[in-house]
Amino acid sequence: MEVYSIEGAANYSLSITAAESPVLSRDRFDTDDLLGADDAGVDGWSWTGSTGEWSIGQHTVFARARGTTGTWSATVQTTASVIPNNYLDLGAVEYRNIPAVDLSDAPQWLRLETSRTGIFTLLGSGGVAEFTLYDSNMVQLGRASGRFEFEVSTAGTVYYVSVGGSGQVDVMLANLLQRNGTTVVVCGTDGTDLFSLNVSAIDRLLVINGLDYCFTAIEATKFFFDGGEGSDGVHFIGTGGSDVATLRPTSGTFAGQGYALDVANVESLDFDGGAGDTVTIWGSREAETYTAEPGRGRMTGENVSINVTAETIYARGYGGGDTVVFEDSDGDDVLEYFPTWARMRGEGYFHHVQGFNTMRANA
């Protein structure tokens, strides 16, 4: 079956050969929808007509011929795709936010290409958005209000989206998340990306650039985030039990009951935990400052930003002329200095530092 693409109200041509008296229709030869006919088509016949009144989408066109004896031939058919000619071409989409889409003259049309396999998400906020998804041949694939997700099997696939509704709507599009069994992989863009994972409740709440995805503990147990280029941040909220993490200037690993998270190519890391949690922080080969407070630790430098809330924190310098500053609590604290390391402890917290050239304490 051949598919013809038609831009808006352009003309559509179909050639029919080897027919004496061809008849062309859009509705099985309903006389109200007859497109054309010819009584002398023995040498072939071409029909050209306007598609201005055809709705956007895919249409089936039927043809048959009648011989000199009056006998009709079998019906043949093809499809014609009427494509909107006023769409916004987004090209390949990883992540895109289109603010204040005016739906007073709905629908608005988008054309997009997928950037990777996985889940593609459309989200409308600030108004009422109705999403209708079409493939490149204008076959309708699905429809949803507010939020629409579909699975992408091939990168570079073209889709059209009709955005209906009312008011002004912010439209967000993302092709950043992939699932393989119980493993979830999130890819960052070349710009600034913000990734967070909250495992404090029964379900796992993942948010990437303002788009949230919720998984049960059975659906997802392993998470990966690659920030890619740009300035990317990670915010982790622990279980409330015993969570363990190792954080480096551009990467980190997190683990606890029923989950594991690995992150790479990031510029800032926040670990939001508490009692029972143990975190190890590594600096870079440049000069950094580590600030040790009761239950909190902060490693900062030119290319380092690591913030931790946990009961037990180990901080490691990396030979770059690093400094550690101890801040005490309102209660009784114990600080011990040794030639290459130090430790401070008090009610509900413990710090152990090593590899710092300069150590100071504020009582």
Structural descriptors:
single chain, 363 residues, mainly beta, 14-stranded mixed β-sheet, ten-stranded mixed β-sheet, 0% helix
Task: Explain what the structure shows.
With 363 residues, the chain is mainly beta. The protein is built from no helices and 36 strands. It has strands at residues 3-7, 11-16, 22-25, 34-37, 45-50, 57-65, 76-83, 88-93, 95-102, 108-114, 118-125, 128-135, 140-145, 147-152, 158-166, 168-180, 183-187, 193-198, 204-208, 211-215, 222-226, 232-237, 244-248, 251-256, 259-264, 268-272, 278-282, 288-293, 296-301, 304-309, 312-316, 323-327, 334-337, 341-346, 349-354, 358-362. Strands 9, 11, 14, 16, 17, 21, 23, 24, 25, 27, 31, 33, 34 and 35 form a 14-stranded mixed beta sheet that branches. β24 (251-256) and β25 (259-264) form a beta hairpin. The protein is rod-shaped, with a radius of gyration of 31 Å. 28% of the residues are buried.
User: Strand-residue fraction?
Assistant: over 45%
Measured on Cα atoms, how large is the radius of gyration?
31 Å
Q: If helices are DSSP runs of H or I spanning 4 or more residues, what is the number of helices?
A: 0
**Count of strand segments:** 36
The amount of helix comes to under 10%
User: What is the averaged pLDDT score?
Assistant: 86
Terminal CA distance reads 82 Å
Q: Tell me about the biggest sheet?
A: 14 strands, mixed
Which blocks of ≥5 consecutive residues have pLDDT under 50?
A: 1-21, 26-31
Structural class: mainly beta
Principal-axis shape equals rod-shaped
